Amino acid sequence: MIAYFRSGWAFPIPYLAAYLLYAWLLWPVNVAAAGSWAPCLLHVYWTLHAINLVLGFITLRSWWKRRRKEEGAENHSAFQLFSSSAFSAAPWLCIGLLFWIPGIYLEWPADPNWHLERINRWHSLAFVRDHIQWYKSSYFLPYSLTGKAVDYNVGSGLELYYTGICLLLCCHGSAKTSQVGSIQNQPL
Q1: In this predicted model, what pLDDT tens digit does every residue of 7-36 receive, in sequence order?
Q2: Which of 152, 58, 147 is nearest to 108 (CA)?
Q3: Residue-level pLDDT at 154
């Protein structure tokens, strides 16, 4: 399970598969357009979000239990375990703030309104291929998480989405760097 999330590429595959299937079979994107027997793509994405959240929670819980076992949790108080976890999470919180404070402007400095329009366009479309940029499935993911985003101010759902995606990329890069370091430090 940890390898599934740590890979950085495995968990988006079901999203892409569903997106391409809906584009190919011309199944509906939104609830308003749902006139067929197939559920709308938005509901499929919400289901995938829920599954990933549950699997992520289970993975974090098993990781936490294994970490407590390795550190000899029986000999440490709950405060010591919490403080060591908080200390190890501090750099990730700082990185999160680094992405959160300047906001979405870091990702889309040239024309954030155009990107916002591409995300919001899904609100009024019936099928995947109706979008002018339908071949870019990445625009449907923020729509499924934030709905119709009104703006990209601090505190909006789009800001949370952006900060979360950046932290995922950082975690993925951190995991790859630690794997390379462990490979380099092994004796031949």
Answers
A1: 667 788 899 999 999 999 999 998 766 567
A2: 152
A3: 45
Helix, strand or coil, per DSSP, at residue 11: coil
Angle (nearest 5°) at CA 52 between 157 and 46 = 55
Beta bridge partners of 28: 127
Q: Dihedrals φ, ψ of 28, to 5°? A: -70, 150
Tokens of 150: 């009104």
State the pLDDT at residue 34. 55
DSSP annotation of 188: -
State both tokens at 34. 């749902």
What pLDDT sits at residue 33? 60
Kindly report the CA angle at 14 between 140 and 167, in degrees rounded to 5? Answer: 65
Q: Report the C-alpha gap between 157 and 135 in whole angstroms.
A: 24
The DSSP code sequence of 160-186 is HHHHHHHHHHHHHHHHHHHHHHHHHTS
**pLDDT tens string 50-103:** 998 898 888 878 877 777 777 665 555 655 655 666 677 777 777 777 776 666
How many residues make up the chain in this entry? 188
Residue keyed to tokens 């501090």: 90
As given in the structure block, the two tokens for residue 58 are: 């289970």
